[in-house]
Amino acid sequence: MKVLVPIKRVIDYNVKVRVKPDNSDVDLTNVKMAINPFCEIAVEEAVRLKEAGTATEIVAVSIGDKKCQEQLRTALALGADRAIQIETEETLDSLNIAKLLQKIVDEEQPGLVILGKQSIDSDNNQTGQMLAALTGMAQGTFASEVKVDGDKVNVTREVDGGLQTVALNLPAIVTTDLRLNEPRYAKLPDIMKAKRKPLDVKAAGDFGIDLSPRATLLKVAPPAERSAGVVVESVDELVEKLKNEAKVIS
Amino acid sequence: MAILVYVEHDNSELKADTLKTVAAAQAIGGDIDLLVAGHNCQAVVDAAATVSGVNKVLVADNAAYEHQLAENVSALVLELAGDYEHILSTALSVGKNFMPRVAALLDVAQVSDIIGVESADTFVRPIYAGNAIATVQSLDTKKVITVRATAFDAVATDGSAEVVALSNATDAGISAHVSDELTESERPDLGAASVVISGGRGMQNGDNFKLLEGIADKLGAAIGASRAAVDAGFVPNDMQVGQTGKIVAPDLYIAVGISGAIQHLAGMKDSKIIVAINKDPEAPIFQVADYGLVADLFDTLPELESKL
Ligand SMILES: Cc1cc2nc3c(=O)[nH]c(=O)nc-3n(C[C@H](O)[C@H](O)[C@H](O)COP(=O)(O)OP(=O)(O)OC[C@H]3O[C@@H](n4cnc5c(N)ncnc54)[C@H](O)[C@@H]3O)c2cc1C
Ligand SMILES: Nc1ncnc2c1ncn2[C@@H]1O[C@H](COP(=O)(O)O)[C@@H](O)[C@H]1O
């Protein structure tokens, strides 16, 4: 079974982003970038499926400018067999990302597509579900366990009240939650080997999809700052303040 | 102009956050219909009919919707979509799961997790774990939107809407529910509680969460956790507060043994009053806390419980 893993280049999760003074967007100049943490988990899950003999080939795909090849190389170092970059200078809506991924699904015919549940920049949490809709596949979102069983996959999902397990017909779409696995680190020899693995570049404009934006970003503002409050010296003082000053307990 | 709001429920109870999503729909403006998709969910329908400002409650009570599988629910909403300009759902696990599927089937984008309504086509939403707030104007004719409930005030429940039974029953046949493993708790829902007390890695193990329980009992609080505490297996995943967990905004949030990573802050920094108990005076949580106590939690928690 072939596994397709869409990955996204995003700001490193440790970096606190700043808004540009003209409120047009966030400022990403000289900011450390990385593979979206949920996508890293997706790659790891694919690699484990391959190690278990369930997956036969792992194809990583990223849509973005040339720089996202760095993250594709990371995926190759972690164990993906080959990579596809769909090149575009634009920041595309999740719907357009999903449409491009649909074309790759048509070409590659994977048995499973594993995406992250959410990009930590847009916080959209949409692409996997949209790809599932466009391809007519079943979806197992927010997965904390994935078990392939014949022509089905059982996905345990993190839901509001706890966990839910669903059985999906293959091919299917899975999106990863944080506890699905703990990604490994790429070893130096694997990083060297990754440089020689195939990486195809395709132009986003060549797929015959209307990629025009579906929304206009009017403004990006910093959040309302909370001002640091006071340090209390004792539990007594804390209880007193909560009762009489904040009036949140009685 | 009409708006369809998807009702969040578990077949027996209407989730209170739905009332806040209806408030978001009111801010958009237009006739509001509710959709209840489930099975043997009459109690939910009864509750939905009382939601103030609602025109009709559409009910699809069918085995195909019992577990609100995304494949089936999205097909149902798609069939109804023709009558609506806006389709809204709460950004909880059901809505987050099926709504983007609806959007893609309608060939429109989704606006996720809105915290404000500027006009019928312009919405405010947090990005980058809440470190930036974006105002976006949708260019699509139909708007598919998920709503961050904490940003809106619940509407009243003094209405009496007309209930309309739908005969739709779509089973896409590509997915099936296998089992649920739900956390049983007598405590209020994290999302609904007016007081939340959360423990982090500093709690050291799951047993020590008992130290929070006594306090939670006295305050009628829900108990939450940081990702580190969930990861370490101290507590179940549904207790995780943060960017990728639950978003809460109670009157009082008490963070115990939590450092205050941006991903955690993203889930609680809109709380009215924040208390931090941490032994490290440099912990970033103190930068957002109204009241900080630099102390060892193992001394503090028993004392706090006794003094409440
Ligand atoms: C993609 C992604 C998504 C994430 N999403 C979330 C999310 O939704 N929610 C979330 O919480 N995290 C999330 N995280 C993780 C986040 O980055 C932090 O790792 C996590 O919040 C840290 O949890 P913590 O504060 O409990 O642990 P730590 O950072 O280890 O802090 C423990 C704190 O306890 C204090 N302490 C220790 N012992 C005591 C004691 N005896 N008395 C008092 N204080 C004590 C320490 O001083 C320290 O400040 C995410 C990370 C990633 C990469
Ligand atoms: N530009 C992109 N290239 C490849 N995959 C993407 C891209 N954007 C989003 N994805 C995938 O979709 C997931 C969810 O993203 P989102 O819907 O933007 O929150 C990510 O974790 C990726 O797996």
Automatic annotation (TrEMBL), chain A:
Residue ranges of domain Electron transfer flavoprotein alpha/beta-subunit N-terminal in the record: 23-211
Source organism superkingdom: Bacteria
Record flagged with keyword Transport: yes
Key words, A-Z: Electron transport, Transport
PROSITE patterns noted in UniProt: ETF_BETA (PS01065)
Keyword Electron transport in annotation: yes
Family: Belongs to the ETF beta-subunit/FixA family.
Name of this chain's protein: Electron transfer flavoprotein subunit beta
Organism: Thalassotalea eurytherma
TrEMBL record, chain B:
Residue ranges of every copy of the Electron transfer flavoprotein alpha/beta-subunit N-terminal domain listed in the record: 3-181
InterPro entries: DHS-like_NAD/FAD-binding_dom, ETF_a/b_N, ETF_a/FixB, ETF_alpha_N, ETF_asu_C, ETF_asu_C_CS, Rossmann-like_a/b/a_fold
Keywords, comma-separated and alphabetical: Electron transport, FAD, Flavoprotein, Transport
Family per similarity comment: Belongs to the ETF alpha-subunit/FixB family.
Protein name: Electron transfer flavoprotein subunit alpha
Source species of the chain: Thalassotalea eurytherma
